[in-house]
Design brief:
Blueprint: H1 2-23, H2 34-40, H3 54-64, E1 78-80, H4 81-94, E2 106-107, E3 110-111, H5 114-122, E4 132-134, E5 136-140, E6 144-147, E7 155-156, E8 168-172, E9 177-183, E10 190-193, E11 198-201, E12 206-209, H6 211-218, E13 223-226, E14 230-233, E15 238-241, E16 245-248, E17 258-266, E18 272-280, E19 285-287, H7 294-302, H8 320-329, H9 339-345, E20 348-351, H10 357-365, E21 372-375, E22 378-385, E23 391-404, E24 407-419, H11 431-434, E25 437-440
Antiparallel strand pairs: 1-4, 2-3, 2-7, 5-9, 5-12, 6-8, 9-10, 10-11, 13-16, 13-19, 14-15, 16-17, 17-18, 20-25, 21-22, 21-25, 22-23, 23-24
Helix pairs in contact: 2-7
Amino acid sequence: MKKNFLILFGVILMLFSTTAQAAGISIQDNRATADYWTGRNKSGEAVFVPTADLDMLNLQIRQKSANTIVDLVNYPEKVYVQWMTNKITATMAIGKFQNAEVPKLFRNGAPLTEFSFTQAKKNCGLDALPAVCVVRYALTTGRTNLRLLPDEVGWFTDESDTHYDQLQGTAIDPGEPVIVLIDSQDKEFVFVETRTYAGWVKPSALAFTDKATWMKYAAPQNYLTVIASRKTIPQGKAFYQMGGRVLLRAPDLQKDGSWAINVPTVDANGILIEEGLNIPNDKFVVKGTLACSENNLIRQAFRFLGEGYGWGGLENNVDCSAFVQDVYRSVGIELPRDADKQEKAMARSISLKNMTREQRLEILKKSKPGSLLFTKGHVMMYLGTDDNGEPLIIHAASSYYTFDGGQTAKHYIRKIVVSDLHFMSKDKVEMIDRLNSVGNF
């Protein structure tokens, strides 16, 4: 009996330990609610960027983002070989694949071979680019992965990993306008530019169309924005995440209270067919965008709370920069895709480098809720300070480290969580002391 009790106690202890590790840095009390933070921010309903000023702000962001946000509407109809070379090599460089050395990665559970690495780069066709390329116009018909090289098999840092595919650039929503430049050598991929990323996609994910039709989506006059963390339109079909836009067929609600929309589909030849549908006017979509206020940023961020982390948008989830990009897009602000580019795009930014912890805390306590905090490779949204004066954040967290008795342990969170800034990286430095800057608009 005593032995059975000890076994049972051991199982309970293991379960408790596993639960505690899963909770990790995540705060679970009322501070992990939007109401807690919006209630503390009495001036947070005020609009800080009027709708009429969003176009100008987004132009300024695009100018500060070193061409990482593409002006699709004014994209040239013809591009030349050097343009294409620069675009393709810049995409390679995101994963450091432009180097000759074979990266220490795993493909299909085995070390990446020189042959596979060389073939993927050769498939880009850099040595056979045409002197002039007449661009093509297309829309995505579903959630679409953009790859850094034209290879659909994942490249991972660990032989058993399935989450962190180093070839994954990002994922884009259905109905996104893309510029198609060239085919891969094996014709299995095409190289495209989207509003915030370039990469290789399967042509089967696209519906090709003429420029005039494409422009309706590239510069929509009437559209819905998805404000839920995720939504399928129609039910169970095309998967959108927050910030995704849906083209309206009519600017006003129908008599039955629904929205009349167009959803891009494709015929047998890959040509666009616009499918007309009606969807409910529910809490998951809004015409145009939400009002650009601090409290709306907070509410939108909390719509993701507890959902999974998805490297580069894999597994129908978001990583840290996609999370804040989606939240900000839902109020009309178009951020670049990656954290380092987002840091450069801030209208107002305060560097925290070479500051003491006390100086950092003083700046944070004066920062607006909804501000973004940046460190190398990570971005977080600032919520404010709690009743104890502790600055808290909401972010798409991948992992953190603990150190006990000389032993280092890495713990995966892989969720959107609320936390403080005391979790550690592998260099034993707390996040509060690793922050590079705080930025806002």
